[in-house]
Write a structure and sequence with these properties.
Elements: H1 5-10, H2 19-23, H3 33-43, H4 49-59, E1 63-66, E2 69-72, E3 75-77
Bound molecules: iron/sulfur cluster (SF4).
Length: 93
């Protein structure tokens, strides 16, 4: 990984203060929409949230909660859809 804005910012704070370090990565890569929302809420208290979000946008993170936002395929999405329910307009193969 390159030296990102997050890396530089995180180096200036105690890593123990970062919610994703306290909670562990599973919550920030959770499948459950409720867990994703919890991870996003925890990010709001993070001292490097802004830099984390900027770095994730620059890297086009493929997946996970970064900087208080959910990323899917490099894009910020509003919220995670529950698994197993196809879209109404989804065309059957
Ligand atoms: S903003 Fe980034 S560094 Fe902070 S808790 Fe969220 S994912 Fe972790």
């Amino acid at each position: 990984m390159s030296t990102s804005v997050l890396d530089r910012s995180a180096a200036q704070v105690d890593e123990d203060l970062l919610p994703c370090r306290q909670e562990g990565p599973e919550l920030f890569f959770a499948e459950s929409p409720a867990d994703v929302e919890l991870a996003k809420a925890l990010c709001q208290t993070c001292p490097v949230r802004s830099a984390c979000l900027t770095g994730a946008l620059e890297r086009r993170e493929p997946w996970g909660v970064w900087g208080g936002q959910l990323f899917v395929s490099g894009e910020v999405v509003a919220r995670k859809r529950p698994r197993g329910r196809p879209r109404k307009n989804e065309v059957a193969a």
